[in-house]
Amino acid sequence: MAKLISSEVANRAAYRAVRIHGGSGFMKGYKVERLYRDARVTTIYEGTSEVQRIGIAREVMGS
Hints:
By secondary structure, the protein is mainly α. It has helices at residues 2-21, 31-44, 49-61. The radius of gyration is 14 Å and the shape is elongated.
């Protein structure tokens, strides 16, 4: 559960940072661009967020 929440929060923060920086937020060499790429990977690495939600739901429901 902690990984799901932390990856979602990191994604949201990185997305907002890119929006604040505008077009330069996507340019190579800017730290914001690297942070955004790193944050996006967390939703894919070790299963997508949706798969994690399914696993959490199964654990909560006891099946």
